[in-house]
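Issue 218. Parser rejects a valid record. Input:
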Amino acid sequence: MTRSTLTIRLLTAALGAAAAVAVATPATAAPPVAGPSAPAPNPAAAKPGQPAAAPVSARDAALIKQQDTLLPAARNLAGQARAAGSDISGVRIDVPAGVIHVYRTDPAQPLRLPAGALPAGTQVVVHQAKFSRSAMLQAADLVTRDARVLGEQKVSVQAVGPSVDGSGISVGIFLRDTRADVDLNRASTLLRSRYGAVVGQVTGVRRQTSDRDLFFAGWRFNDFAPWYGGDRISSSVGGCTTGFAANYNGGPAMLTASHCGGVGTAFYNGPRSNGTFSYLGSSVYSDSGTDVGAISVSSYSLYINVGPAENSGLLYVPAWGSPVVGQYLCQSGSYTGEVCGLYVVDTGQQVCVSWFLWWCTGWQGPLADVINSAGSGSYAAGHGDSGGPVYLRNGSSGTAMGLVHGQLTPNAQAAYPAYFPDTMWCPAPEGWSQRCSSGFSFAHMPGY
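Output the parser choked on:
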């Protein structure tokens, strides 16, 4: 689990501050490059001798059962929020209370939900919001496009994303002055004068200057075709984890994180119990803008490894989906093993991953963030889990929600600082080590 940044020497010469200018309407975005798509509906059978997934804890099972009644309506409303012209800002579920919170700019309008989408006992609470999700995403897009202009005025945007409650976009600013309040006050003033009230919370973050080493371990290194998600993979870059099965250019592929290796990188599964490595395939797709990569393989399975890293069972994952703020997910990295009870705190975040002088030259996203609902003293994922599956448990099967990316994004770090440090002790098959955090970010599934 890592997030790369391009380390550069910052110039200390003062750069002239330009006067605030009117915000121009953004040009129409170019159509996205075709990426990996969901796999074919017919999975390869599970290999003989491997057990099914063990049930989750009683606590997690109860949460999953409770949220199952909320998710159909919540997903429908979250889908409406993404539609052009929608006044919905965001959707958040409160699983223990059985409530769906909807934030919208026009609460007087009736909610449009299919018949039967709200089971008996499900409560929907509508809240007044300042901005719709589409307005916030447009503003966030403008901020990322204006990174150079802002940087020349010494406002270095590290991250930007919409708030679920529609209060505006959250903006993380790289702090380089010893007087953090000076940096933040200047940044807030400039951003609001340039983009208006759509700029909500502005927080300060420290730019990461180096990557952390990846760590190697795992029982899941004895796999063979058709390949599973949650397998241990290694390359010249280091150790990572396979995510979910996918199709790419008409052929079978396994997803992982882009930062685990660019196009052409050879990946191996292992070391096996006899000390050898087995060739998995080579990367045929690597999008650093989303941190999603695809490895061409001879065949795949729609099963993923779940449970402890060294003694995993299998979970069938036939579908892909989008995360909803407030829901509980699991991750199954090949280093840390399966961790459930991961609470989604945001979605759709954009994070700066490369800099020139004071401005961002490369963005990564959309990313979502989760924290361990058991508290900041409980690990969520660690280095080496990168690319691993993030999913929703649906009883004996699951829904793919994303791929492990790295530490919390800057906006989530500011909101949940105790969950950010990656020095927590956590298990791996070769022993415990300080490589985990109690929260992490994950890449949305391609197309979601």
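Fixed in the parser; the record now loads. Confidence is low (pLDDT under 50) at residues 2-33, 208-218.
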